[in-house]
Amino acid sequence: MWSSRMARLYRCWESPRSTFGDIVVLCFLVVQSLDGVFTYLGVRFWGPGIEANPLISSAVATVGLGAGLTAAKLVAIGLGILLHLRRIHNLVALLTIVYIAVAILPWTALFIVGNP
Questions:
Q1: Dist CA 34 CA 100 (whole Å)
Q2: Do residues 96 and 88 touch, judged by C-beta distance below 8 A?
């Protein structure tokens, strides 16, 4: 039983590198970082009520803006990297696209317009 678990664990490390996966995880990291910066700026400009994600709002209310956002983004980045290491690149790509659609584009629109 233990040997089959270990075999499953190291088998994913033996599979060949994927250029697609490397690019996707890099894009995921950039999008997560942008979301963190945009969220920080948005909350600083317009207050905590501007954040629509209840998990982020709760983290910010509990430990503060910087610490809450940092913790949330580190968890998201860690899970994205875990998916990358497990070679689940299509899901990382999908999550990247979703984050662009529901986080980056709305924040960008708010910053361009100037008022929520």
A1: 10
A2: no
Place of tokens 């948005």: 42
CA distance 72 to 36: 9
Look-up: residue for tokens 């983004």? Answer: 73
- Per-residue pLDDT of the chain (116 residues), as tens digits, is 666 665 655 555 566 788 999 999 999 999 999 999 999 999 999 999 999 999 999 999 999 999 999 999 999 999 999 999 999 999 999 999 999 999 999 999 999 998 76
**Alpha-carbon gap, residue 70 to 104, rounded angstroms:** 17
Alpha-carbon torsion (106, 26, 78, 36), positive or negative? negative
Classify residue 24 as exposed, middle or buried by CB count within 10 Å of its CB (0-12, 13-18, 19+).
buried
CA distance 97 to 94: 5
> In whole angstroms, what is the distance from residue 111 CA to residue 116 CA?
9
pTM for this entry: 0.83
Sequence spans of domains, the chain: 18-113
